[in-house]
Specification:
Blueprint: H1 17-29, H2 32-39, H3 43-60
Length: about 80
């Protein structure tokens, strides 16, 4: 048996990437607990969607590489 991979679904197959993005944006300004309560979702579900959002943000906007002078000395 094979399953079709739908590109618009989030890592959790019950939610879309767009909804995961919405939840992640909400978590930037509110607590995970408040977002979960308002959206009537489990705390762990909201946390997983927020993590997916943060990973997508790092993919699109990677952190700047440190300059040679900013690296810590070995030892």
């Amino acid at each position: 048996m094979r399953q079709e991979k739908l590109l618009f679904l989030a890592d959790n197959p019950f939610y879309t990437k767009r909804f995961a993005h919405y939840v992640g944006r909400r978590c930037r300004n509110e607590t995970v607990k408040d977002v979960a309560k308002e959206l009537r979702l489990d705390w762990s579900t909201v946390k997983a969607l927020e993590i997916q959002y943060m990973k997508a943000q790092l993919k699109w906007y990677p952190p700047p590489k440190p300059k040679h002078s900013e690296t810590l000395p070995a030892g």
